[in-house]
Request: fold
Amino acid sequence: MEVVIVPDATAGGELIADAIAALLRRKPDALLGVATGSTPLPVYEALATQVRSGAVDASRARICQLDEYVGLPADHPESYRSVVLRQVVEPLGLTEGAFMGPDGTAEDVQAACEAYDRALAEAGGVDLQLLGIGTDGHIGFNEPCSSLASRTRIKTLTEQTRVDNARFFEGDIDQVPHHVITQGIGTILEARHLVLLATGAGKADAVAQTVEGPVSALVPASALQLHPHATVVVDEAAASKLK
Ligand code: F6R
Reply:
C-alpha cells in the first residue's frame, strides 16, 4: 500500500485526477468506479477541469457506482444514481449509457445485487476504484464487521453513518434510508487499482487504523492492505495520527 500525504483536499483531488487522466490516456474506455459523499468532490472538479481544457479526453470513459440507497426513487436528488449523474457523468460530458449502478428500487434486491456483480465482471472489471472512508473505517457501505470476502449485497447503515449522511437530507435523519446496496469488500478488491482519499481530522483515526492497524473486519478499509495496487491519499489533517 502506497500512502501519499498532500497539503489539502484540493491537492489530493488534483493528484487523483492526474492518475485518472493518465489511465484514460492508456485506456480511453477505462471503467472508473466512483464514490459519493463530500470527499471525492475535488477529484471530480479537477477531472472536469482537465476535460474542459482538452488536457484529457474522457469521452469513452465508463463510470460505475459503488453503492446505492435502497428504496429511494432513482430520480430522487440524493439517490446515488442522481448524485453520480450530477457530479461525474454530466461534468465529464458523458451520457447515461456510459454509466452503471445497482438498482436500489428492485423488488428482488438480492437478485439486483447479483446482477450488478455480474455486470461489473462482464464490463471487464473496474480499472480504478475511487473510495472515501467513513469515520468508522467503512468503505462503500461495508460497515465494521463486514466480511472481507463479501460480494455486492444489501446492508443496514449504522446510526453513525445515518447521522453523518443526514446533511444531504436537510439535516433530517428520518429521511436517510436505513438500507443500501453496496459493492462488497471482495468485489471492491477486484478492481485493478484502489485509490482511497481521506481528508480532515475527523478521518485521522480511521486512516491510522487502515494503514497501520491489523487487517480486520472491524476496520473494513484495512482490507486495502491485501490489495497489490492500493494508493491512500490523505491530507495533513487526516494523516495526523499516522506514526
Ligand atoms: C459513498 C461511500 C462512503 C463514503 C464515506 C465517506 O459512496 O462509499 O463510503 O465514501 O461515507 O463519506 P464522506 O466523503 O462524505 O465523508
